[in-house]
Amino acid sequence: MYKIKEIAEALDIEPWRIRGAIERGTIKFRDDFSPPYFVFTRALGKIEAGTAIFLGEKIEVIRGFPKIKRAFFLSNAVKNHFEDKVAVEEKMNGYNVRVFSIKKKLVAITRGGYVCPYTTNKIRKNKKISRFLKENNKVLCGEVVGLENPYAIHCYEEAPKFGYFVFDIREKGSNMPMSIKEKNSLLEEYVIEKVRLFGIYSKEEVVEKTFEILKKLEEENREGVVLKDPEMKLEPLKYTPSKTNTSDLRHAFRFPFDFGRDFFFSRIIREGFQAVELEEDEEELKERAKRIGESILFPMVETIRRVRNKEVVTDDYQIRVESMEEIKTLMRYLQRQGVTCILGDVMQENKNLVATLKRIRPNSNDKIKSILEKGVTSE
Amino acid sequence: MYKIKEIAEALDIEPWRIRGAIERGTIKFRDDFSPPYFVFTRALGKIEAGTAIFLGEKIEVIRGFPKIKRAFFLSNAVKNHFEDKVAVEEKMNGYNVRVFSIKKKLVAITRGGYVCPYTTNKIRKNKKISRFLKENNKVLCGEVVGLENPYAIHCYEEAPKFGYFVFDIREKGSNMPMSIKEKNSLLEEYVIEKVRLFGIYSKEEVVEKTFEILKKLEEENREGVVLKDPEMKLEPLKYTPSKTNTSDLRHAFRFPFDFGRDFFFSRIIREGFQAVELEEDEEELKERAKRIGESILFPMVETIRRVRNKEVVTDDYQIRVESMEEIKTLMRYLQRQGVTCILGDVMQENKNLVATLKRIRPNSNDKIKSILEKGVTSE
Predict the structure, then answer these.
(1) Tens-place pLDDT, residues B105-164
(2) A292 at interface of B, judged by CB pairs closer than 8 A
(3) pLDDT digits over A195-248, tens only?
(4) Is pLDDT at B379 greater than 90 in this prediction?
(5) ipTM
(6) Of A192, A214, A289, B85, which alpha carbon lies 20 to 30 A from A36's?
(7) What value, to the nearest 5°, has the Cα angle with vertex B185 and ends B179 and B191?
């Protein structure tokens, strides 16, 4: 059953390792999609977490999107990681989506490797991407951004509601990426939207250029950059400006007991290294400290006040669909992912339904309520 | 050997549990003191962590000092915890020390239950405490404060260098505390210094009074309060003003990779609840956020800069002793506790030696160095 032998062959892994991982539950089986598929929730040998294996007549392996390392001290990160030229691409603030075709149908999976019904439906409407996938048996890796999705809210003027911007084209099975040049010319040929390439610089000049670029991105409230080997033979590196770090904190401290402590810590540490690398003076440090302090305190105080007023604090997402059925399918899917949502307002807008999904962050609600009532906490 | 049967009897615990804990290493044996003693590094049943058992002819049990719960939201903590009157005592910023006599000698143990040679030597010079212990077979529980010790630096005008302020008197063996009144009259009789009692208030008025007291303490840079049942039949509660929380952060962020993430998180959360309880307005919140942000960023940046300049960042403590031998004994003791110190300047001052102990925080030094060099980090 489950074609474990064929999967093992396709991945070049011993079958017993796969069987073991299925038994442990680190490879999950999903049959709410046709064909059914396996998801690697953790890395197994060289196979990345987020890998999905579709069990049609022919087995199709969509490898997980590799984790991109973050630069904490940019100059030395660049010095150690790159050989010659460095391409600077924009890192957009949304959620990572791989798009490809299975049995001639376009499928979109999120970072974890699950087929998201909402994202799949939305991207299926994009004729250019559909045509590309008909003619190329590749995996598009990109970021969904905009205000209308259930995962990440950030408005971009080029895609205020829903946009998909490709940053990698990879081979099915092997996960081999195209070079920057090949990728961009292919995407241009099909007129598919892609993340911005700011330029390709020498190793010597790229750090200065990157800080210039980041300054502009920060002013425009954009997330950051990814530095890549133009040939895509070396690991990329990501780097973000201060405003992005503190806006992550601002979101997370709305739900202080739902985000891990490492999440807070990591973002705080980045600020320290960046301040040192930018040789900030007293005034600039004070400005940065103010940003950090306010991004921690303000959202936390607002949440505590709301819980004290008996409100339930939720993270609200807007989606735009064509039918109530789509909303229900998405909510069932999210529920299965362990996300508890309640449906807020649903409004008709032309042919569409615009709905609010209110995601409940249970730990913050419960823990804050308990601390307010008891006055103490066991931790 | 080790008189396990007698210990088990004295503690009213099955001998095999004690034997098991010794094997697991959660009860440690120390023979660098006479008589040798056992230390409970973790709680075992109802026996608190920090309990020390001295193996003289007669076994003597010094129970661990009970952990005091912290109020996060003072009004409701008071409502839930107390019955009638509430005593408000000062919580001083130093290290917790139990003092008692074993075989007619005064012994001082720290929170963990170990005999600290430095603290023991210092307190032995106090004739009033010595007389008290000769005449009372009790345990004094108090705080060592001041600038001259290897653990906690905070200057008090009433004890700038080395002071010992008692907050509890407890029975050997049972850990039963005296009532506030009994305790204070006994301490007054022997003219032993004690923490300040601000007053005994009704449950209804104590919260308002406490915030008034805290405001003054904060202005004077003092740590906070402990609220106690005057009869000592209920658990006490501690509470600190914002400046104390942020000054903890300021110290910990000098060594960001040596303090646990829970340490940071807990202090940040306290600030949120306090701001809500004090009904702070926009301006006050901004002031508090500034304090938080600066207490995080400034020390971290300074440490990163110093590591970049090839300095070793250390936590420096001053001690005052009578001989080089005392310094060596203390350093051997600290080493055995897992603390790495290097000896800095040693100066003669009248009959004393004043020495600097430079405590190395290895994780922050190593991790920051590695991030600066590599530019990235695996976490």
Answers:
(1) 999 999 999 999 999 999 999 999 999 999 999 999 999 999 999 999 999 999 999 999
(2) yes
(3) 999 999 999 999 999 999 999 999 999 999 999 999 999 999 999 999 999 999
(4) no
(5) 0.92
(6) A192
(7) 130
Chain B residues with CB under 8 Å of A296 CB are: 268, 289, 292-293
Which of B67, B73, B207, B279 would best serve as a mutation to test chain A binding (most A beta carbons within 10 A)?
Answer: B73
**Planar angle of CA A151, A157, A159, nearest 5 degrees:** 50
**β-bridge pairing A314-321 and A197-202:** unpaired
Contacts of B301 in chain A (CB under 8 A): 272, 275-276, 280, 285
Check if the beta carbon of residue B254 is closer than 8 Å to that of residue B299: yes
Q: Are strands B69-70 and B237-239 parallel, antiparallel or unpaired?
A: parallel
Helix (H) or strand (E) holding A80: helix A74-81
β-sheet with B138-145: strand ranges across: B105-110, B95-102, B138-145, B163-171
pLDDT at B224 over 80: yes
Q: State residue B93's pLDDT score.
A: 98
Interface of A with B in 172-211 (CB under 8 A): none
The DSSP H or E segment spanning A38 is: strand A37-40
Per the DSSP assignment, residues forming a β-bridge with A29 are A38
Cα–Cα nearest to B1, from B50, B45, B36 = B36
Question: How high is the pLDDT of residue A35?
Answer: 94
Among B63, B69, B162, B175, smallest CA distance to B113 is for B63
What distance, in Å, lies between the first and last C-alpha atoms of chain B? 47
